[in-house]
């Protein structure tokens, strides 16, 4: 692609950003849509507010936001989408007059990835492992689908309790349970089977590939669907355990694809069709393997 005076600049802010595969993803979307567009990772070490203001002044059309700024960036926005406000986290900034509006496409990305697998969460037990930013998105995405019970377990159980309280507040009447990682087996075995489990911690992420947040493999007996938000390695220990117990297991690459497509659509107004998604998925897989 030739960069000229009309090239649109998008980017990612976070710390660190060296590992990101998002440039390859947005490059693929830009190619398919025939747009002159660059997507640049920017590591923000110091003043986040100054970085957002500077991006606006430099006419940067849109940004993704990653760890550790998904919540911290909110005070520096001109507006925020209702769902992102409810989640308390944004991953996409869209340029509007005077500043940026924050959105969260993680939730929609996860939902689309699960639906693409033909899985419905309504009426079945759903367990969320973790209580950080990704677990928040997964919990709200699951809660919207009316599971029979939403179980949240975390290494720090107090955070699981807080998250469960917030979900209950947003979805009154939803049955929830929460506890420590050690409670996972007891909570899931009493929940009626056919469970969907979302692994939302960083345990098992490359290079610590020997880790699984739940150490007892028996916990996953009865798990019909296991979704690990990690996409590197391609198969995590969590996924192996779900498969060994007879369940279907997926990694987080499709979620990454769909959240990226949703960001791209918000920024450009383009519609990313199935062919573009397939092409971008191939590009993403190559980028992760590299
Ligand atoms: P975060 O906010 O920092 O939360 C980290 C979570 O992992 C916390 O619940 C933490 O427990 C738990 N944890 C960390 N190390 C652990 C260990 N060794 N054993 C057990 N639990 C551990 O991070 P995040 O933004 O939620 O991201 C979590 C994962 O999701 C990352 O691997 C990230 O790459 C992935 N992710 C993927 C996508 C995608 O598109 N596929 C999108 C977003 C995130 P404590 O509360 O006890 O500290």
Quick rundown:
Helix 5 (133-144) links the parallel strand 7 and strand 8. The protein has helices spanning 22-33, 48-57, 82-87, 106-116, 133-144, 157-170, 184-189, 237-244, 253-268, 274-289; strands at 8-14, 37-43, 62-65, 79-80, 92-96, 99-103, 125-129, 149-154, 176-180, 195-199, 223-228, 248-250.
Count all strands and give the number: 12
Count of runs of 4 or more consecutive helical residues: 10
Rounded to an integer in angstroms, the radius of gyration calculated over CA atoms is 19 Å
The neighbouring-strand order within the major sheet is 2-1-3-5-6-4
Tell me which ligands are bound: NADP nicotinamide-adenine-dinucleotide phosphate
Q: What structural class should be given to the helix and strand makeup?
A: alpha/beta
Shape: globular
Q: What report would you give on this structure?
A:
By secondary structure, the protein is of the alpha/beta class. It is 38% helix and 21% strand. It has 10 helices and 12 strands. It has helices at 22-33, 48-57, 82-87, 106-116, 133-144, 157-170, 184-189, 237-244, 253-268, 274-289; strands spanning 8-14, 37-43, 62-65, 79-80, 92-96, 99-103, 125-129, 149-154, 176-180, 195-199, 223-228, 248-250. It has a 6-stranded mixed beta sheet, sandwiched between helices. The chain is globular, with a radius of gyration of 19 Å. The structure holds NADP nicotinamide-adenine-dinucleotide phosphate. NADP nicotinamide-adenine-dinucleotide phosphate (NAP) binds next to helix 4, helix 5 and helix 9.
């Amino acid at each position: 692609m030739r960069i000229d005076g009309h090239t649109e600049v998008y980017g990612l802010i976070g710390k660190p950003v060296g590992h990101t595969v998002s440039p390859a993803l947005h490059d693929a979307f830009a190619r398919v849509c025939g747009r002159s567009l660059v997507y640049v990772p920017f590591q923000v070490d110091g003043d986040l507010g100054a970085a957002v203001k500077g991006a606006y002044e430099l006419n940067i059309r849109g940004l993704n936001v990653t760890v550790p700024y998904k919540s911290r960036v909110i005070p520096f926005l001109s507006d925020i989408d209702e769902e992102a406000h409810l989640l308390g986290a944004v991953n996409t900034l869209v340029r509007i007059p005077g500043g940026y509006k924050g959105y969260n496409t993680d939730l929609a990305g996860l939902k689309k990835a699960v639906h693409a697998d033909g899985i419905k969460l309504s009426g079945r037990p759903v367990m969320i492992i973790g209580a950080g930013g990704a677990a928040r998105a997964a919990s709200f995405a699951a809660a919207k689908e009316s599971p029979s019970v939403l179980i949240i377990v975390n290494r720090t159980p107090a955070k699981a309790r807080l998250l469960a309280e917030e979900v209950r507040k947003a979805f009154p009447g939803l049955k929830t349970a929460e506890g420590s990682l050690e409670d996972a087996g007891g909570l899931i075995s009493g929940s009626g089977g056919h469970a969907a489990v979302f692994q939302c911690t960083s345990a098992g992420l490359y290079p610590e590939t020997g880790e699984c947040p739940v150490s007892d493999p028996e916990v996953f007996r009865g798990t019909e669907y296991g979704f690990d938000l990690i996409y590197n390695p391609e198969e995590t220990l969590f996924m192996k355990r779900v498969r060994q117990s007879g369940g279907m297991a997926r990694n987080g690459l499709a979620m990454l694809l769909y959240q990226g497509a949703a960001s791209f659509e918000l920024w450009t107004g383009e519609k990313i069709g199935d062919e573009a998604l397939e092409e971008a998925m191939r590009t993403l897989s190559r980028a992760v393997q590299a």
